[in-house]
Write a structure and sequence with these properties.
This protein has helices spanning 2-7, 20-34, 48-61, 86-114, 135-154; strands at 13-17, 38-42, 68-71, 117-122, 160-165. It is α/β, with parallel strands linked by helices. The strands form 2 sheets. A 3-stranded parallel β-sheet has the order 3-4-5, with helices on one face. A two-stranded parallel sheet has the order 1-2. Helix 5 links the parallel strand 4 (117-122) and strand 5. Helix 3 runs parallel beside helix 4 (86-114) and helix 4 (86-114) runs parallel beside helix 5. It is globular, with a radius of gyration of 17 Å. The protein starts with a helix and ends in a 21-residue tail after the last strand.
């Protein structure tokens, strides 16, 4: 996403990642081509204060403007429903739902002050068409979509466009740890 934005002449782009090594690698790769128009910030988006700091540092990099926020963090969280603990559900909601909520809470005051902006929350088709062994993923992405749609209308008159993006199946690291449950029928 960052590369596409830079290639489309975005003035500046900030990338956030919890993986320091991956973030440094991507920042170096993009800076080689786009110079100081890109910045990487290490961030665990499951913590509200972390996200506030990320948005503040990004706004500073953007010279106090914040035109576009893409909430793209997420994990698959598959498995049998009966095997999932409350802690499992909390982890799924922290990453797939609350991280986006924290981002929107932090950026909306900036966008309101500047007179507009855009927020894109990446969901999944599973939010609309749930699948077996994907109850946590389905529930978290459906919740994010519901919040997105409600806020779309709440902030419409403020010239803040809030949308869900459903990219379809995309080859990402999310699939690296996913395995069918041992007792799943094939």
């Amino acid at each position: 996403l960052a590369e596409e934005l830079l290639e489309s002449n975005a003035a500046k782009v900030v990338m956030a990642d919890i993986n320091r090594e991956h973030l440094a690698q991507q920042e170096e790769r993009l800076k080689a081509r786009h110079g100081d128009r890109v910045k990487g910030i290490l961030c665990d988006v499951t913590g509200q204060e972390n996200v506030r700091n990320l948005i503040a540092a990004s706004a500073e990099f953007f010279n106090s403007r914040f035109d576009l926020l893409i909430n793209n963090a997420g994990g698959g969280f598959g498995g049998y429903f009966s095997d999932q603990t409350d802690a499992d559900w909390k982890a799924a909601f922290d990453l797939n739902f609350f991280s986006a909520l924290y981002g929107m809470r932090a950026v909306l005051p900036i966008m309101l002050q500047q007179g507009g902006g855009q927020i894109i929350n990446v969901i999944s088709g599973v939010a609309l068409w749930p699948m077996p062994y994907q109850s946590r993923y389905s529930a978290t992405k459906a919740a994010l979509n519901g919040l997105t749609l409600a806020l779309r209308y709440e902030y419409w008159d403020d010239n803040i466009k809030i949308s869900s993006a459903t990219p379809g199946t995309t080859a990402t690291a999310i699939f690296g740890d996913m395995k069918p449950p041992e007792n799943a029928q094939t």
